[in-house]
Write a structure and sequence with these properties.
Number of strands: 14
Shape: elongated
Radius of gyration: 25 Å
Strand order of the largest sheet: 3-2-1-4-5
Strand content: 15-25%
Number of helices: 12
Order of helices and strands: EHEHEHHEHEHEEEEEHEEHHHEEHH
CATH topology of the domain at 179-296 and 338-358: Argininosuccinate synthetase, chain A, domain 2
Helix content: 25-40%
Oligomer: single chain
CATH superfamily of the domain at 179-296 and 338-358: Argininosuccinate synthetase, chain A, domain 2
Length: 408
């Protein structure tokens, strides 16, 4: 195939992307540049360099993006309290726009005329990578091998490796246990026994958290300090964005927090069953909502709740760089100016419980909210007119003889 001289490949060093690197060289007769991102997946990324070098690749990019990932992607998303279909904290989804951004930046820096990724033609990631890339580099060429080749099974991939002298570590036969994706926010599991939605996940599958049954019998308390909607300290220790999430993952995982078993609706149209561990993110969501409950105006908080499902769908479907997500983010970030203060959280056997919150920007007024004598701060008699005005439309309808429709 002609017209492609150099391709930047999102490269993990694993089986799929190692095959893709060689396949690109042979099929497109092009130079391959590899890009490996450390976004907190918990594995060494440097071995990818040796594997790329062994395939004759000259330009190799390996980058630590953990701080950028949390600061510029995870934290803005959590300011929105984003939750897809009521359960999914979007751990995989939010990593893709950053990888897409770096792919096109490296392509520009190296003079490459195409980028490539290892996402399959059945999943969401192909959409996320490519929507992000096109938004940032409209004329970029994208090569998605899984939509072109016939190596659509692990057996065929391994056979290709044998034929083309591609080293494969830890060969264990033809069956792979789970398809996993990890970053600093979460780890996901799909495939194998999970393809039966009625099958309970094996305990040995979970890597980041203990089971609630084996979690400590004593609760763990932590205090989170917020500044403009982001956590900046844990128990008084000032931490970077990635430092916060790393610490929360350790503490929450040790208390059995963050497991989810979900059947979700993929953007490409099918339902998919996946399991997720998001220990730190589970604490972040609960605590952030607690901080907002004290500091956000009622209607602004309700507006955010109205917009959240739309925002979450934009992230899930790959529209991070779209004008509508950017516009929503401007509103969300504006809402966070006074989301400052401290939240105390209790972790116990898989549960996250807010047990206290305080802020110099609090809108809670004890003198008004009290059940005791409020010394005239609130005139309870005013409530009668308030109720009558809000009931006016219903009273008019009743006076006109309209009956309230009831579902039978």
């Amino acid at each position: 195939m002609s017209g492609t001289n150099k391709v930047v490949l999102a490269y993990s060093g694993g089986l799929d992307t190692s095959v893709i690197a060689r396949w690109l060289q042979q099929t497109y007769d092009c130079e391959v540049v590899t890009f490996t991102a450390d976004i907190g997946q918990g594995e060494e990324v440097e071995p990818a360099r040796a594997k790329a070098e062994a395939m004759g690749i000259k330009e190799i990019y390996i980058e630590d993006l953990r701080e950028e990932f949390v600061r510029d992607f995870v934290n803005p998303m959590f300011r929105a309290n984003a939750l897809y279909e009521g359960e999914y904290l979007l751990g995989t989804s939010i990593a893709r726009p950053l990888i897409a951004k770096r792919l096109v930046e490296i392509a520009a820096a190296t003079g490459a005329d195409a980028i490539s990724h290892g996402a399959t033609g059945k999943g969401n990631d192909q959409v996320r990578f490519e929507l992000g890339a096109y938004a940032l580099s409209p004329s970029i060429k994208i090569i998605a091998p899984w939509r072109e080749w016939d190596l659509n099974s692990r057996d065929r991939l391994l056979a290709y490796c044998e034929e083309h002298n591609i080293p494969v570590e830890k060969k264990r036969g033809s069956k792979s246990p789970y398809s996993m994706d990890a970053n600093l926010l979460h780890i996901s599991y799909e495939g194998d026994v999970l393809e039966d939605p009625s099958a309970e996940p094996e305990e040995s599958m979970w890597l980041w958290s203990v089971s609630p049954e084996k979690a400590p019998d004593q609760a763990t308390y932590i205090e989170l300090e917020y500044l403009k909607g982001d956590i900046v300290a844990i128990d008084g220790d000032k931490l970077s964005a990635a430092g916060v999430l790393t610490r929360l993952n350790q503490i929450a995982g040790a208390n059995g927090v963050g497991r989810a078993d979900i059947v979700e609706n993929r953007y490409v149209g099918m339902k998919s069953r996946g399991c997720y561990e998001t220990p730190g993110g589970s604490v972040m969501l609960k605590a952030h909502r607690a901080m907002e409950s004290l500091t956000l105006d009622r209607e602004l908080a309700h507006l955010k709740d109205d917009l959240m499902p739309r925002y979450a769908s934009l992230v899930y479907n790959g529209y991070w760089w779209s004008p509508e997500r950017l516009a929503l983010q401007t509103l969300i970030d504006y809402s966070q100016v006074y989301v400052n203060g401290k939240v105390r959280v209790k972790l116990y056997k898989g549960n996250v419980m807010v047990v206290g919150r305080q802020s110099d920007d609090s809108l809670f007024d004890a003198a008004i909210a009290t059940f005791e004598d409020d010394a005239g701060a609130y005139n309870q008699a005013d409530a009668a007119g308030f109720i009558k005005l809000n009931a006016l439309r219903m009273r008019i309808a009743a006076l006109k003889g309209r009956k309230q429709l009831q579902r039978r």
